[in-house]
Design goal:
This protein is an alpha/beta fold and 188 residues long. The chain is built from six helices and five strands, in the order βαβαβααβαβα. It binds flavin mononucleotide.
Length: 188
């Protein structure tokens, strides 16, 4: 069955390590017949959530702020799977990804109980560190987030040991690229 996949890429580097993970995942998913929409958040005008609690009145334009989130809301609505892609920043997501994700709250506001639409999720991440201790905080956060939202994890790919943009492509390419491609192609 073909599924709609939304990638939110929170890296500031359009051709960086996280982008390469997104490319590999997309190659696998597209080859398996899935439809992928990708948003490189750094290139978009997306403001932080105002916490005004005044969204959720119009399903087409759920947020009171009219910026480039208006492009993401329709893709989120039709997505079966949301891919959270980010470099690890201070053992968490980049601010670009966090800002866009917070703004999805306007969609939850359409529901009287503030329930988010239920989606499957994937985490793609690049990081300088390459130890279990380094990965733990963000993986704990990701799994806690999904558990709170009632979302299902389809897989996480964390490319450790890459600092500079493009490090992930050096040599024969980081093993995480093949992991990301396989994860994309394994989506059912
Ligand atoms: C502000 C900032 C914070 C970072 N924090 C971490 C961190 O907590 N742990 C880590 O392993 N790497 C950290 N890094 C390194 C990045 O995760 C790493 O350079 C990554 O490969 C960048 O991916 P990109 O090419 O997609 O931007 C940080 C880098 C920056 C600029």
């Amino acid at each position: 069955m073909s599924r709609n996949i939304l990638i939110l890429n929170g890296s500031p580097h359009t051709h960086g390590n996280t982008a390469a993970l997104c490319d590999a995942f997309t190659d696998g998913a597209a080859a398996a017949g899935h439809k992928v929409s990708r948003f490189d958040l750094q290139t978009m005008n997306i403001h932080g959530c105002l916490g005004c609690m005044k969204g959720g009145k119009d399903p087409e334009h759920p947020c009171v702020q009219k910026d480039d989130m208006t492009l993401i809301y329709p893709a989120y609505r039709s997505a079966d799977i949301v891919v959270l892609a980010s470099p690890m920043y201070y053992w968490g997501f980049s601010s670009q990804l966090k800002a866009a994700f917070d703004r999805l709250f306007a969609v939850a506001e359409l529901d009287p109980g503030y329930r988010n639409p239920v989606r499957d999720a994937v985490l793609l991440m690049a990081a300088e560190g390459n130890t279990p201790d380094n990965r733990k905080p963000v993986l704990d956060y990701y799994h806690a987030l999904l558990s709170q939202l009632g979302w299902k994890d389809l897989g996480t790919v964390l490319a450790g040991g890459v600092l500079h943009s493009g490090d992930i492509l050096k040599g024969n390419g980081h093993a995480a690229l093949e992991e990301a491609r396989r994860l994309g192609s394994a989506i059912l």
